[in-house]
Structure formats: structure tokens, C-alpha cells
Design a protein that fits this description.
The mean pLDDT is about 85. The chain is elongated. It has helices at about 1-20, 25-50, 85-95, 100, 125-145, 155-165, 175-195, 195-200, 205-225, 230-245, 255-270, 280, 285-290, 310-325; strands at about 105-110, 115-125. A hairpin with a 4-residue loop joins strand 1 (about 105-110) and strand 2 (about 115-125). A two-stranded antiparallel ribbon has the order 1-2. The chain folds into two domains: about 1-310, Up-down Bundle (Fumarate Reductase Cytochrome B subunit), CATH 1.20.950; about 310-339, no CATH class. The chain is mainly alpha-helical. Helix 5 (about 125-145) packs antiparallel against helix 7 and helix 9 packs antiparallel against helix 11 (about 255-270). It contains 14 helices and two strands; from the N terminus they run ααααββαααααααααα.
Length: about 350
């Protein structure tokens, strides 16, 4: 955990110090272009690799009664048997995290009087679902809001989202709720890994690094808006220059902005090669995108090469004389004239 935190702090410190001593062009121009190219190329490579991967078995994850006799009620969402059922299941999975909503937690009680011994109990655990949903939707709104830096004039739909996000105006500039909520969600996800002993035992560097990186991005973004304020108009001119491949001078933009931008670029570079790629990966997962119809439809393993089968008739034609001599039953007796 601390190694990933130190790495994020080191990246931020290098970006801040480098932009402060005149290397803003490196962190503000060259690095964003490299990050976008790596992100697009990496994601295309991952999706092509997933699309070309054979699916040898029908392995959808099921969570209810499959299609059976007419008088047995089927769970058409958790155990779909046709394409329309898969579409509904994928919609609920992508937009509402349905499988995470069904999450349960197991706990072993040391002594249960009714059982006269230890007993395992299961109960619903919705906290992870709630904070995961909160994080993803808040991050999506923040991502959409940032399009105002890439467009001139700003579309009315983005202005509407900003007005809804900042409807509870506190101070100046107005406070955006998504910034505080996404930070709270990230803190919960980090605390869950730190204080849950079993989860902490399983967590690796690549589990903590994206959390610290996202917290660094959100934290520097909040600081830029409310504390170490930068000139928004100058930032928009600079980003519009990058968008149109005509970079402009970085003069007048403070070093914290380039720290924020560098962390975003690191996230873009890291994204295609990490667990974060589950965003498009869910659409390629056979556990989600297949219907549970293995009892009605034959699934052919694409890994199996074509084979030359030796039928029984061919086998008997080859070994008929030997089989007759051994007294084995034959469908066709040897030709005595040939003997």
C-alpha cells in the first residue's frame, strides 16, 4: 500500500518541480499526446485480443432458476435463455451493477446455542454496491463536465449538468457535489482494503495504485478549483491549443495544474493494462454475454481441430478376418469366396 502511495507522490512531485523550473512543455504538451496514443492503442489491442479469444464452453454465471418446464418459473434476468434476456441482464449490470447489488457477506459465529457449535451465517452487504455506484457515476459526471475545456461554445447540456451538480451553491466558486462525493467514495474503497483483514491479505500493488492515483487526481482538481486557483480562461486556451494540435504558451498557468494533468496522463497510460479495463471488458465476458441454453443448443469448442474419424464400419472392414477368427460378432461376415 505504501509503495503505491509513494509512487503517486513521486510522480506528482516530479511533475510539480519540473513544470516549476521550465519543463511545463514536457508535462503539458508531450506527455498528454503520448498518453492519448497509448490509451487508444492499448484499448484497441485489448478489445481485439478479447474479441479473437475463443469461447470453448457455455459458461454464463447464473443466479436463479433456468428455463425448464412450463410450470416452473424462470428467472429471465439472472438466468437468461435468449438474446433479449442477455440484453436486459447486461443493461442492469452496466448501469446499475446488479451482480454487485446481490453481494452477500459470510461470517462464522464462534458459538450458536441453536446449533450447539459454530455456525456460518450469510447476510446482504450493500455498502460496496452503493459506494461503487456513487464513484462511477460521480466520476462520469466530472468527466463530462470537463468537456467545457475542449469546446467553444460550451454545449447547453454540459451547462445544465454543471447547474445540477452545483445546485447547492456554497462559497465562490460554487461547490460541485460530485467532487466531494467521488472523494468520499474513494476513501471508502481504500478503507475497505485497509481495514478488512481478508481483503488486505489479498490486495496487491495494482489494487492500491489506481486508488491513490484517482485520489491524487481528484485532490489536485479540488485544490485547483478552491484553494490554489489558476486562471481558467488561460487553461481553456491551452487545452484548446492541444486539441487543435497548435500548442500555446504555458505562461500564466501554475505548476499544480501540470501536476493534475500529469496524474491524468499516467492514468490514461496505465488504464489499458490494468484491472480498470473492466469497463469495456464486461461486454466481452462470456459469463455475462452468453445465454444459458447449453441444454438446448450445442456449443462447439473452437479450439478443437478437425479430426478424421474411424467409423465402426471402416474398422470392421479393416479387421473383419481377424475378428471372425477370434469369434467376435460381425455385422457382415467375411467373403468365403475370397478365402
Amino acid at each position: 500500500m505504501f509503495n503505491s502511495l509513494l509512487l503517486v507522490l513521486l510522480i506528482g512531485a516530479v511533475a510539480w518541480a519540473g513544470s516549476a523550473i521550465g519543463l511545463a512543455g514536457l508535462f503539458g504538451v508531450a506527455l498528454p499526446y503520448v498518453a492519448v496514443v497509448v490509451f487508444i492503442g492499448g484499448m484497441v489491442w485489448r478489445m481485439v485480443y478479447w474479441a479473437k479469444s475463443p469461447v470453448p464452453f457455455c459458461i454464463p454465471t447464473t443466479g436463479g432458476q433456468e428455463q425448464s418446464l412450463d410450470f416452473i418459473k424462470q428467472n429471465k434476468i439472472d438466468c437468461p435463455s435468449n438474446t433479449w434476456g442477455v440484453v436486459k441482464r447486461m443493461f442492469l449490470e452496466v448501469f446499475l451493477f446488479r451482480s454487485l447489488f446481490r453481494n452477500t457477506q459470510a461470517e462464522v459465529r464462534e458459538f450458536d446455542p441453536a446449533n450447539n457449535g459454530p455456525r456460518t451465517i450469510y447476510y446482504s452487504s450493500k455498502w460496496l454496491w452503493a459506494f461503487a455506484l456513487l464513484f462511477h457515476y460521480c466520476f462520469l459526471l466530472i468527466f463530462i463536465r470537463h468537456f467545457r475545456f475542449f469546446m467553444d461554445p460550451v454545449p447547453s447540456c454540459i451547462r445544465f449538468l454543471e447547474s445540477i451538480d452545483g445546485i447547492m451553491q456554497v462559497g465562490s466558486p460554487r461547490f460541485f457535489m460530485t467532487g466531494g462525493l467521488v472523494l468520499a467514495a474513494l476513501l471508502f474503497l481504500l478503507a475497505r482494503r485497509v481495514f478488512n483483514e481478508r481483503l488486505r491479505y489479498l490486495s496487491l500493488f495494482n489494487d492500491y495504485f489506481p486508488l491513490w492515483l484517482l485520489m491524487g487526481i481528484v485532490g489536485t482538481g479540488i485544490c485547483l478549483r478552491y484553494f490554489d486557483k489558476t486562471e481558467i480562461a488561460q487553461v481553456k486556451i491551452f487545452i484548446m491549443g492541444l486539441t487543435h494540435f497548435t500548442p500555446v504558451s504555458t505562461a500564466g498557468i501554475n505548476a499544480l495544474f501540470f501536476t493534475h494533468l500529469t496524474l491524468v496522463c499516467v492514468l490514461l497510460i496505465y488504464f489499458p493494462f490494468s484491472k480498470l479495463a473492466h469497463m469495456p471488458g464486461v461486454f466481452f465476458s462470456p459469463t455475462r454475454n452468453l445465454a444459458n441454453n447449453s441444454r438446448r443448443v450445442r456449443h462447439i469448442n473452437p479450439w478443437n481441430p478437425p479430426k478424421q474419424f474411424f467409423t465402426y464400419a471402416e474398422y470392421e472392414d479393416t479387421y473383419r478376418d481377424a475378428m471372425a477368427e477370434a469369434g467376435l460378432p460381425l455385422e457382415k461376415q467375411p467373403d468365403k469366396a475370397a478365402e
